[in-house]
């Protein structure tokens, strides 16, 4: 299994749309951060697929080390 690569040492703040399904990219290799573009193939890592329950602004993890995937838990401050 490949290591997770921090895409950035800060969260991605963005608005999610209620009812929409998202695939947060766990490995850090995507060109479409923080979402999956399929470049994880062969890494042994997979995206975290989730459905937004409400329309709201969230902080999605950018360092890929969170313990609360796909949301930022502040781990980036320790890297």
TrEMBL record:
A cellular component term from Gene Ontology for this protein is: cytoplasm
Keyword Heme attributed:
no
Q: Gene3D superfamilies, alphabetically?
A: CDGSH iron-sulfur domain, mitoNEET-type (3.40.5.90)
Domain of life of the native organism? Bacteria
Coiled-coil residues:
none
Molecular function (GO) terms for this protein are: 2 iron, 2 sulfur cluster binding; metal ion binding
Q: What keywords appear on the UniProt entry?
A: 2Fe-2S, Iron, Iron-sulfur, Metal-binding
Per UniProt, residues of the Iron-binding zinc finger CDGSH type domain are 9-46, 47-78
Q: Which InterPro entries match?
A: CISD, FeS-contain_CDGSH-typ, MitoNEET_CISD
Q: Which Pfam families match?
A: zf-CDGSH
The reply to whether Iron-sulfur figures as a keyword in the UniProt entry is yes
Q: What is this protein called?
A: CDGSH iron-sulfur domain-containing protein
Native source species: Rhodovibrio salinarum
Q: What is the lineage of its organism?
A: Bacteria, Pseudomonadati, Pseudomonadota, Alphaproteobacteria, Rhodospirillales
């Amino acid at each position: 299994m490949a290591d997770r690569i921090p895409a950035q040492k800060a969260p991605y703040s963005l608005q999610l749309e209620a009812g929409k399904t998202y695939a947060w990219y766990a490995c850090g290799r995507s060109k479409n951060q923080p979402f999956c573009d399929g470049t994880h193939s062969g890494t042994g890592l997979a995206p975290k697929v989730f459905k937004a329950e409400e329309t709201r602004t969230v902080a999605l993890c950018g360092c890929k080390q969170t313990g609360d995937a796909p949301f930022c838990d502040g781990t980036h401050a320790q890297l």
